[in-house]
Design brief:
By secondary structure, the protein is α+β, with helices and mostly antiparallel strands. It contains five helices and four strands; from the N terminus they run αααααββββ.
Length: 170
C-alpha cells in the first residue's frame, strides 16, 4: 500500500514538473500557430487583450514622459496629447487580427525597433517569474536583446498579457 502511494506521488510530481517546464513552450507555440492560421478565436483565448493594451499604454506613457524631458505645464502638453492619441490608437490596433499578423510575421513592434534589428531572426528563451507568470526573452541573431513577451497563468494555460521593447521603449 505504501509503495503504491509513493508511486502515485512520484507520478504526480513528474507530471507537474513536465507541465512546469514544457507549458511555456507550448503556450508560445500555440500563440504562433493561432497567429499563422489566422484563428482569431484561438488568439482571443491566448491573449489577454485588456492587459496587453494596458501594458502597451504604460510604455507609451513612459516614452511620452521621457520624450518631453522638460518641466512645467506647457512643456507637458505635447506628451499628454501623444499619450492620449497613442492610447486611442492602441484600442483600435490591438485586435486579434492585428496581433495575429504581428506574431505570424514576426513584426511585433518592428516599427519601434532600430533599423538594423528589423528583419533579423529572433530566438526565444523562457525566464520564470514564479508559478503564475513567465517572460519569453527574445534575442536577435546578432546577439542584441529583442522584445520580451509577458505571459500570465490562466488555469493550467497561459495568456499573453504584455510585451516590453529592449532599451528605451518606443
Amino acid at each position: 500500500m505504501m509503495r503504491k502511494l509513493l508511486v502515485l506521488i512520484s507520478l504526480i510530481a513528474l507530471i507537474f514538473g513536465a507541465w512546469y517546464l514544457a507549458s511555456p513552450w507550448f503556450a508560445m507555440n500555440g500563440l504562433a500557430e493561432a497567429a499563422q492560421d489566422g484563428d482569431t478565436a484561438a488568439l482571443e483565448d491566448k491573449v489577454d487583450f485588456p492587459a496587453l493594451r494596458a501594458s502597451t499604454s504604460e510604455q507609451i506613457t513612459e516614452a511620452a514622459r521621457r520624450g518631453s524631458g522638460q518641466s512645467g505645464l506647457l512643456a507637458r502638453v505635447p506628451a499628454v496629447v501623444t499619450e492620449r492619441i497613442g492610447r486611442e490608437a492602441l484600442d483600435r490596433a490591438l485586435t486579434p487580427e492585428t496581433v495575429g499578423r504581428m506574431v505570424a510575421s514576426g513584426t511585433l513592434a518592428a516599427d519601434f525597433l532600430p533599423e538594423q534589428l528589423r528583419g533579423q531572426e529572433i530566438s526565444w528563451g523562457v525566464e520564470r517569474e514564479g508559478f503564475d507568470s513567465f517572460r519569453a526573452i527574445g534575442t536577435f541573431e546578432d546577439g542584441t536583446a529583442g522584445p520580451t513577451l509577458i505571459f500570465a497563468r490562466d488555469g493550467l494555460a497561459w495568456k499573453l498579457t504584455g510585451f516590453e521593447l529592449p532599451g528605451p521603449a518606443l
